[in-house]
Amino acid sequence: MHGHANPPPERIIAHADLDAFYASVEQLDHPELRGRPVIVAGSSMRGVVSSASYEARKFGVRAAMPSAQAHQLCPHGIFVRGRMGRYVEISRVVRQTFEAFSPLVEPLSLDEAFIDLTGTERLLGTALEAGRALKRRVFEHTGLVVSVGIAPIKMAAKILSDMSKPDGLLVLGADYLRRFFDPLPVERLWGVGRVTLERMNQVGIRTIGDLAGYDVMTLRQLFGSFGPHLYELANGRDPHPVVADWQRKSYAEESTFEHDLELGSLELKRVLIAHGEAVGRRLRADRVRARTVTLKLKLARPLGGGRYPLVTRSLSLEAAIDDGAAITRTAISLLDRISVPERVRLAGIQVHQLEREDPIQLALFNARHETSSRSGRLNRALDEIARRFGENAVMRGLVQAERAAPTRRLK
User: Which pTM does this prediction carry?
Assistant: First the structure.
């Protein structure tokens, strides 16, 4: 006698996104900013906007917009320097809140994550009830509002949370996926970039429903190996699970300067010290270490069309590190190898080849264990000061001198 396996339960996947995260944290911590157009960016008009409150968005201000453009659109906006240490602190609380609902939490950034709620119905109730409880708990723990989309696949959950902003909740069952998808512009599908979109438009594909009307063989002919994946997405199928042990591929900090800096100048090295410390702090917060350090420089010599030469140098280390001083030393050693007499308009540090936290390896600097322990104690003290008083409260070496890093961008 052959039994029939029960079909797997319909997946219940939430995408939670904190609304205007950085700007909302500033309004939370500074009540006088509530209801006002807050723009989190550097003091330089050559920098970019990291976050804009909804009051500022009414004037067209958006994240990643040049600060100068934001100032033109919203001249009465309140420009605030970002406080990454504080944002990381709030993000940890939010992450812990998500993990109280499900062990399967896949962070995408400080302010958004996927949460797999499949199988939690007996504990949390319906998807709608779980979504309401999630929003309520985040607000109780942080004072911030979160927009939530819930659907059987990750892409739909993400689209729903975007549509529910600000402070909304949208839930979609499997039976309604195609009805929901069909009228949406085809560029809402993950992976459809400019080139693919142009090809689709050439053959008359404008909506997801148009794409779903094609058979898989035709889509393979049109889009190669990407065709079958597009077919599955357009028909509301995506096998990708929520991965709890997701790990970002890299961490980076970079600055666009108010004035161009000489390549070997003390000012530039001060900037790299600040960035090395910030990257190290974020690595330690996430309990990971990096094996490769990359120095990024954008030269001040224009190429035309608003473009500038980009120079990168990388070094892979014997042992993975999370110490800001070690990251900085590596970046400055890369800087010292560049002998071209140039001025620089942007500088950054990126680390990658990440590893989960392991026992400390000392081969890199041939240091004694006591030295490493001392470094670890210092790092913990610096992290606590940054958490309580902001990331610029205390830094090593030359950073307390005049700073030249008005804009920092998180990646």
Answer: 0.65
